[in-house]
Amino acid sequence: MVIKRVLIWVMLGIGSTGVLFMYKYFNPLNHALFPKCPLKHLTGLDCPGCGSQRALHHLLNGEIEQSFLQNPLLFLMVPYLLLGFYLQLVPEPTVRELKLRKALYGYRAIQVVFVVIILFTIVRNMAKI
To answer: Could you tell me the CA-to-CA distances from 52 to 47, 58, 71, 89, 121 in Å, in that order?
Structure first.
């Protein structure tokens, strides 16, 4: 059982490294191997995730300002999600960690995140009209 778990983590590490390598050296704007957004293709509107692949490419190449311009929401959501994964994986969370998890990932917090994502999508598409 332990070997299986270690093997899964090793495979995830290798896969993640490969994906990061691809995003560092290949700009998603110029290469067809990266998936395109179906919503943008059908409607011409940006979804909340549009620009994330280009943002990751610029971020991995040290172009932080250009990365932020591609998708500002990414800079808020990635730390939020990483903290969430950390709080989920802590084997014996402290009382403070449990309170933080409830405050940031409880029902109300998820509603706030949903509203932020919707508002971000509306605002970014209003700029195009």
So the answer is: 10, 10, 6, 25, 13
pLDDT tens for the chain, 129 residues long, are 778 888 998 999 999 999 999 999 999 989 888 888 898 989 989 999 999 999 999 999 999 999 999 999 998 898 999 999 888 888 888 999 999 999 999 999 999 999 999 999 999 999 776
The Cα–Cα gap between 89 and 78 comes to: 16
Q: Which of 58, 50, 72, 51 is nearest to 23 (CA)?
A: 58
Number of alpha helices (DSSP H) and beta strands (DSSP E) in the chain: 7, 0
Q: What is the pTM of this model?
A: 0.80
Q: Please report where in the chains the tokens 């800079």 appear, as a residue.
A: 75
Residue pair 90/97 in contact by the 8 Å Cβ criterion = yes
C-alpha 46/C-alpha 107 separation (Å) is 27
Q: What angle do CA 124, 110, 46 make, to 5 degrees?
A: 20
